[in-house]
Design goal:
single chain; 4-stranded mixed beta sheet; 4 strands
Length: 103
C-alpha cells in the first residue's frame, strides 16, 4: 500500500475510491498520569504521553489502511492526522485520506 501526504500519485493516473479513515481513543494508565503530572512541574517532554500518541497514530494508520484495502485501493493519498483530548489522560487520534486505485 502506497501512503502519500500529497494529493496525487506521481506519474500515475488514479481513480478515487473514497474517503478512508481510522481512529482510536488511547489512554495512559494511572501511574503514567501521576508521573506526567509531576513532570509538568519541572518541565520537559512527557515521554509517557509521547509514547501513547505514537502508538495511537500507528493504530489509526493501520485501521485506515485496512479500510482502504477493503475497497481494493492501491494507495491512500492526501493523508492527514487529527487529534483531540477526550478526557484527562486520553486522546483520540484519527488518520484519514483518499483511497485510490492506480490505473
Amino acid at each position: 500500500m502506497l501512503l502519500l501526504s500529497i494529493n496525487y500519485v506521481p506519474d500515475k493516473k488514479i481513480e478515487a475510491l473514497g474517503l478512508v479513515k481510522g481512529n482510536v481513543v488511547q489512554s495512559s494508565h494511572l501511574g503514567k498520569d501521576i508521573m506526567s503530572g509531576l513532570k509538568t512541574v519541572v518541565g520537559g517532554e512527557i515521554a509517557g504521553y509521547t509514547e501513547m500518541l505514537n502508538q495511537a497514530r500507528q493504530i489509526a494508520m493501520k485501521r485506515m489502511v485496512d479500510e482502504a484495502e477493503s475497497l481494493g485501493a492501491d494507495a491512500v493519498i492526501n493523508i492527514r492526522y487529527a487529534s483531540a483530548s477526550v478526557m484527562s489522560g486520553a486522546a483520540e487520534v484519527i488518520a484519514y485520506g483518499t483511497a485510490v486505485k492506480i490505473l
